[in-house]
Amino acid sequence: MRDTTTDGLLLVDKPAGVTSHDVVLAARRAFGESRIGHAGTLDPFATGLLVLLLGRATRLLPHLDGVPKEYEAIIALGRETDTDDLEGAVIRECPPPADARIADSIRVLTGDLDQVPPAYSAKRVGGRRAYDAARAGEALALASARVTVFEWRDVQRRDETLHAVIACGGGTYIRALARDLGRLSGSAAHLTALRRVRSGPFRVVAAATLDDLRSGRAVLQPALAALPTIPHVVVEADDAERVLRGIAIARTGSAPRAALVDARSGALVAFAEEHGDRWQPRVVMHKVG
User: Fold this and answer.
1) 78 lies in the same domain as 178
2) What are the two backbone dihedrals, phi and then psi, of residue 126, each rounded to the nearest 5 degrees?
């Protein structure tokens, strides 16, 4: 297999005040690799974990285990904004809710929910972005989407703010949860701080900082590190060569998916799925030659 030093996994702890795209641009400059994909962006005011895949590893994005996502959130009670976060204009004020109403609302906002996205979001209606319409003063009718909130934990109220860790599935807007918490509790609320600390098996404590990335200190992990939650099946040279050509090989074990690993180099050869008694390569990492 050819040496591909820019195929891999990069975890970055995004600071506030920069966009996720800014981080991607910094990674392109740091590693000289134009092909970079992400497993979910963060708003500019938010901080925390960005999961990036570089080079040929971008093809693994649909197969990443990104659930649950965990966020540390701070919610201001008593005021709702047009963006559902601290960057918007206050559109409604109410007395802060009682603790019992907050607890009841959290119970309602746990489980499978039909969530209406924020008015300022990237959702499209008739080909138009919701945030573009909102900035033009036109309210779009946004359809609700099914999302899952696994839990709210470490919930603490401090005067007129609520601190919580929220674990959820992909596509969940924490801003919308803050908005709905306020409405359900008979008050108003908006999100003032957000930090993503986990995405599936990946955690922010293992991430490089943006300064690390810009100074060349960030370390790119091998592509195999992107698939830690499925079996790693070692394949010998003959089978590795078949897999590289997209040919199915004899399957071992009972798992439906596997990372096929070259016995000589320890590198990821392919992501494969079961097909009867065979491993069928779905994403081949390296070309032959």
Assistant:
1) yes
2) 60, 35
Q: Which residue among the candidates 43, 85, 180, 239 is catalytic per the annotation?
A: 43
Mean pLDDT by 10 residues, the chain (289 residues): 72 97 97 95 96 97 95 98 94 97 98 91 71 69 91 97 97 97 98 98 98 96 97 96 96 94 95 96 76
CA gap 242, 70 in Å, rounded: 39
Which CATH number characterizes residue 210's domain? Answer: 3.30.2350.10
Task: Write the DSSP string, 21-74.
Answer: HHHHHHHHHHHT---EEES----TT-EEEEEEEEGGGGGGGGG----SEEEEEE
Would you say residue 289 lies in a domain?
Answer: no
Residue with tokens 């069928």: 280
Retrieve residue 168's tokens: 């959820």
Of the candidates 213, 221, 173, the residue with the CA atom closest to the CA atom of residue 75: 173
Residue 33 lies in a domain: yes
Residues 144 and 52 in one domain: no
Q: Do 153 and 34 fall within a single domain?
A: no
How many folded domains does the chain comprise? 3
Say what the pLDDT of residue 138 is.
72
Domain match, 81 and 157 both: yes
Residue 43 designated active-site: yes
Please give the model's pTM, rounded to 2 decimal places. 0.92
Residue span of the structural domain in which 123 resides: 69-196
Question: CA angle 90-173-41, nearest 5°?
Answer: 110
Closest CA to 42 of 85, 78, 9: 85
